[in-house]
């Protein structure tokens, strides 16, 4: 009996030992399987895995950033990813705290995998939260992508674990945190935390407060669902969850949590797109500049740089403050001017509105030509493969569209139903503008406004558009005469009818220009200073007759003007079509003591690592003597002292009428400092110009219609002093108010060897130079 019992106990012990062996075999086998699975994943057997190089340089598309001279981001170039990475030190501490509290409370304790969280997730099947660490989520974002279903779901999770541990070995915790913020898509072109913080709050990431940081961190769960523009209630609720987590882990107090949860989102939505934001026309120019640069400058490996994906940094000369002042000046003046234009061109007052001096047949031809050049026709013909007949018919069918309008003095949009052919006529009724401001000593362009609204008027009127320049060309004629003939502003010429005979200077027939007032606008003698100030045509004609048109054209070429200028006498009155860009460059030579400095827009280009790829080299040319340049400037000072630009000295001018239409006397500029300038008005008031200079800033402004037949009936509103000068005045008021810009109010510097009399009050000799004079006096008596 005892033996039987002993045998049974021995057998039981052997059976138990067998179970123990099986347990350890299974346990060891399980561990071995897990190890093999992880090894398989690391070897790439479960799918492609990133190697060391890829971990060190993850493939992410980075937008090219456009940076102003004062360090602000003007805009970006990108296709799909508007991403500009920032470092950990550029993150608000509130962002870091909110992310850790919400996504990974033990972030600083684990090495990529949170064991406690993983066991909890297995034990409760994910009902008490997932186990993905920030490192795992970064791995998924960088290398894995959208989570698959079924078996792939588990293999992807394993790959996440492996990559997460590798990331932890490769990077510091701070670097992982920064990468995670940089990689996430927050919606509305908010790729990465920098774009998101600027788009939703118009702030840099480091400046975000607690509730702003909580809102953005709350979007990590699903930015498509928690979109602040479409689901503000849901986003607020999610933000409050993040605030609760921050309070739970001690990052904020309960009092702060309770008070912040009651607040609104307080978005400051600032969209970032190619057609929105600041300096849009300049960015349009810059796009072409960069494409040309990329063609000529490949990467070290011979491949092309990508303007949209390689994270280049373009450092520009544009000053974001001055750019804003320039855009504000345009938006202050243009709606008022436009309101007056609409007032004068109602169907009752002008049956052919907005065109003047055109027959119905001419207008129909003009509209049809515009139709053939339209983007709508291009799209239908080449993208949709429509026939010409179908395309033309579509222009006469009403469609729903969004059109531009000025509303309450601000640019706006209006949804309407309109025939496309009527929309062409509608847009041609708007006056356009171009403006550029430049430092004449450095050539740095500080502001560039190519129009009123880039979304609806994309043709750039700074460099792309060229228009007849009128009397703003006259200083080039005067400068040629001063340079060639040593004339003084105090020399007098007869203000009488004057003709240049046929074939004398290449003109086919006799040329007899009249003054702006017609046959009765003559009388007496005028000094050159008075003649330029009052834009007297006959005296300018006398000057070009003496120096010859070709000499003036040669000077224009040296001043950087590349557009065609025929060597005929009529150019003296501004018949050539030139750009604002060319005119500002030319005028800057006078302010820069006779040295032409080519306008500069880009100072340097860097790659994403800060390596300099391009550094600009100044291009200068000695064009005029310092004396000639100074005398020309003193001549143009007369324009703002007693001529067509004298309204810049206006004090206590009338305020605007409520209907926004008063533009002539509506600006109390009250400038007292020296200003040299010139207004310009072309035939039929089609174009209005003003070129204005102070010692360290030259600014040119043009205003006019897209078509020359779109203009004011009278000179009251159609002159440069009413169309363009107000933009210059408002802009300069803002620049002077910002003392950090250091815009000069000083006199233009006088040359030490000045031999030409510029102060006409000291002139004793009043020699009159007429068309019969073969000799020009060397000088006038100073005493």
Blueprint (SSEs and pairs):
Layout lengths: L1 H42 L8 H5 L7 E4 L5 E5 L15 H11 L11 H9 L10 H11 L6 H20 L2 H11 L9 H9 L8 H9 L13 H17 L5 H8 L18 H17 L16 E4 L3 H25 L15 H13 L2 H9 L4 H7 L4 E9 L2 E9 L1 H9 L2 E8 L6 E5 L17 E2 L5 H12 L6 E3 L30 E3 H6 L3 H11 L1 H10 L18 E2 L1 H12 L3 E3 L4 E5 L5 E4 L4 E3 L3 H17 L33 E6 L5 E8 L2 E9 L9 H4 L1 H4 L1 H13 L46
Parallel strand pairs: 1-3
Antiparallel strand pairs: 1-2, 3-13, 4-5, 6-7, 6-18, 8-11, 9-10, 12-15, 13-14, 16-17, 17-18
Textual characterization of the structure:
This protein is of the alpha+beta class and 783 residues long. The protein folds into three domains: 52-57 and 83-271, Penicillin binding protein transpeptidase fold (Orthogonal Bundle); 328-424, no CATH class; 436-762, Beta-lactamase (3-Layer(aba) Sandwich), CATH 3.40.710. It contains 26 helices and 18 strands. The strands form six sheets. It has a five-stranded mixed sheet with strand order 2-1-3-13-14, covered by helices on one side. Strands 7-6-18-17-16 form a five-stranded antiparallel sheet, with helices on both faces. Strand 4 (399-407) and strand 5 (410-418) form a beta hairpin. Helix 18 packs across helix 23. The longest helix is centred in the first third of the chain and has 42 residues, at 2-43. The relative contact order is 0.08. Mean pLDDT is 86; it is low at 121-128, 653-665 and 772-783.
């Amino acid at each position: 009996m005892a033996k039987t019992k002993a045998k049974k106990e021995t057998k039981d012990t052997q059976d138990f030992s067998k179970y123990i062996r099986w347990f350890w075999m299974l346990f060891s086998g399980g561990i071995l399987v897990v190890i093999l699975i992880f090894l398989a994943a690391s070897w790439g057997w479960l799918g492609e895995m990133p190697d060391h190089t890829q971990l060190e340089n993850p493939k992410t598309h980075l937008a090219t950033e456009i940076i102003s001279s004062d360090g602000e981001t003007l805009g970006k170039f990108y296709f799909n990813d508007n991403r500009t990475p920032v470092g950990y030190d550029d993150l608000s501490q509130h962002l870091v705290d909110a992310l850790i509290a919400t996504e990974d409370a033990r972030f600083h304790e684990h090495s990529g995998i949170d064991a406690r969280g993983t066991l909890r997730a297995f034990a409760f099947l994910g009902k008490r939260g997932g186990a993905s660490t920030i490192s795992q989520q970064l791995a998924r974002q960088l290398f894995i992508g959208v989570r698959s279903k079924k078996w792939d779901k588990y293999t992807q999770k394993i790959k996440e674990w492996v990559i997460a541990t590798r990331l932890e070995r490769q990077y510091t915790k701070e670097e992982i945190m920064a990468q995670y913020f940089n990689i996430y898509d927050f919606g509305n072109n908010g790729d990465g935390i920098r774009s998101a913080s600027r788009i939703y709050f118009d702030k840099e990431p480091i400046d975000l407060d607690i509730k702003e940081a909580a809102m953005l961190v709350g979007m990590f769960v699903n930015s498509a669902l928690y979109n602040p523009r479409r689901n503000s209630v849901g986003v607020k609720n999610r933000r409050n969850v993040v605030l609760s987590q921050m309070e739970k882990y001690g990052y904020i107090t309960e009092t702060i949590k309770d008070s912040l949860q009651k607040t609104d989102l307080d978005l400051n939505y600032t969209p970032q797109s190619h057609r929105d934001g600041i300096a849009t026309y300049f960015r349009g120019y810059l796009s072409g500049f960069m494409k040309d640069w990329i063609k000529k400058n490949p990467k070290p490996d011979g491949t092309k740089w990508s303007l949209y994906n390689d994270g280049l940094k373009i450092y520009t000369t544009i000053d974001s403050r001055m750019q804003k002042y320039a855009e504000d000046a345009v938006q202050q003046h243009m709606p008022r001017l436009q309101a007056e234009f609409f007032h004068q061109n109602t169907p009752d007052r002008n049956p052919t509105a907005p065109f003047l001096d055109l027959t119905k047949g001419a207008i129909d031809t003009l509209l049809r030509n515009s139709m053939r050049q339209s983007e709508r026709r291009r799209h239908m013909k080449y993208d949709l493969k429509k026939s010409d007949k179908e395309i033309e018919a579509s222009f006469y069918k009403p469609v729903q569209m969004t059109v531009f309008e000025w509303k309450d003095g601000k640019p706006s949009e209006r949804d309407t139903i309109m025939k496309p052919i009527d929309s062409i006529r509608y847009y041609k009724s708007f006056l356009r503008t171009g403006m550029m401001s430049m430092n004449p000593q450095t050539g740095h362009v500080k502001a560039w406004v190519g129009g009123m609204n880039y979304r609806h008027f994309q043709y750039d009127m700074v460099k792309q558009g060229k228009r007849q320049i009128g009397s703003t060309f006259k200083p080039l004629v005067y400068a040629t005469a001063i340079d060639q003939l040593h004339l003084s502003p105090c020399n007098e010429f007869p203000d009488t009818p004057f003709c240049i005979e046929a074939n004398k200077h290449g003109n086919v027939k006799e040329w007899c220009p009249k003054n702006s007032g017609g046959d009765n606008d003559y009388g007496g003698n005028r000094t050159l200073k008075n003649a330029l100030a009052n834009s007297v045509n006959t005296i300018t004609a006398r000057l070009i007759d003496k120096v010859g048109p070709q000499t003036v054209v040669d000077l224009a070429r040296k001043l950087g003007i590349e557009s065609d200028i025929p060597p005929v006498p009529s150019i003296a009155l501004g018949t050539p079509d030139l750009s604002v860009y060319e005119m500002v460059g030319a005028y800057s030579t006078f302010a820069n003591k006779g040295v032409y400095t080519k306008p500069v827009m880009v100072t340097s280009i860097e790659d994403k690592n800060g390596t300099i790829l391009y550094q600009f080299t100044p291009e200068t040319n000695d064009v005029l003597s310092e004396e000639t340049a100074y005398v020309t400037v003193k001549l143009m000072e007369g324009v703002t002292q007693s001529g067509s630009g004298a309204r810049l000295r206006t004090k206590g001018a009338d305020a605007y009428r409520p209907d926004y239409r008063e533009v002539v006397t509506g600006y109390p500029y009250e400038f007292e400092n020296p200003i040299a300038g010139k207004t310009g008005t072309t035939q039929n008031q089609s174009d209005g110009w003003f070129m204005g200079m102070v010692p360290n800033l030259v600014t040119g402004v043009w205003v006019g219609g897209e078509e020359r037949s779109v203009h004011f009936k009278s000179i009251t509103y159609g002159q440069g002093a009413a169309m363009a000068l107000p933009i210059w005045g408002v802009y300069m008021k803002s620049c002077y108010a910002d003392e950090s810009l250091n815009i000069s109010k000083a006199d233009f510097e006088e040359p030490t060897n000045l031999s030409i009399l510029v102060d006409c009050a000291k002139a004793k000799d009043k020699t009159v130079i007429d068309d019969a004079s073969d000799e020009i006096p060397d000088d006038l008596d100073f005493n």
